[in-house]
Target: Callose synthase 3-like protein
Amino acid sequence: MQLQLAPVFFTFSLGTKTHYYGRTLLHGGAKYRPTGRGFVVFHAKFADNYRLYSRSHFVKGIELMTLLIVYQIFGNAYRSGLSYLLITTPMWFMVGTWLYAPFLFNPSGFEWQKIVDDWTDWNKWISIRGGIGVPSEKSWESWWEEEQEHLKYSGMRGIITEILLSLRFFIYQYGLVYHLNFTKSTKSFLVYGISWLVIFFILVVLKTVSVGRRKFSADFQLVFRLMKGLVFVTFVSILVTMIALAHMSLQDIVVCILAFMPTGWGMLQIAQALKPVVCRAGFWESVKTLARGYEVFMGLLLFTPVAFLAWFPFVSEFQTRMLFNQAFSRGLQISRILGGQRKGRSSRNKE
Model:
């Protein structure tokens, strides 16, 4: 039972129930949600898994992983005790389960050809613009809009609760900016204010790139590429200046990422809760661009380890033996060989 990863499945299904129970209590709109109890023998694409489990598991897993990394960096006083292992080990297990369980239980999830096809499908899905009549299976934009439908029917109490819960990301930022090497000697509120200036500068840059993509990407590709190159050079120059003058270390850079990334996500959650206000202010397209960037980042974070493991054939063999019995595994191997022979014959016939 342990070899078939039963604790992984139980932990993952528990996360599904917890997420939708919490959403229903906050916003209402209860409806049937599949928890994955059925026996699946077909391969689910990466984009399909992402659509199903992004908000219920992946986002929460990345947030918990961020907290564990911060604890690992600054929790020196607690690492020597047994309590440190007893606390962090189950949490890391939960993080790994919530992030990668769908891929462990996905048949043929570590076959290289499937990985290539999934990556092509993911890029197509994330880049297609949504609109009327475009289903969520075809466009990230349509799926993203559907994920916010529960906020349309939520009352004022649910909206306020959503905003209050999103403020926790700003608390992360407030705590981390005072743990940089060049800010440890001061507790001035000016440091927190400067961190917000940095965030707004990044948002302005993203807004500029978004406007440039709409105006120049089609007719003036050279101008748009020069704009992106200028933004990249400016960012590198600022980073080098901070390292040289403020003596930033590699740990400081990591801490800044851990502080600013959750803050941007918190701003996204608040903007989605206040969508009518944001639309009237004319910032909804900017919010959409920022959200797409976060989705791409999360997709890369999830896809990279799976693609790396797919390089090793024994991983796919182990997964097949874990999911299915010996007779079915042998039949699946034979079907792969026959499928490869058919592809070879068809390619020779075309030649």
User: Anything to note?
Assistant: Residues 83 and 89 are 10 Å apart (CA to CA). The two ends are 50 Å apart (CA to CA). Residues 1-147 form one domain.
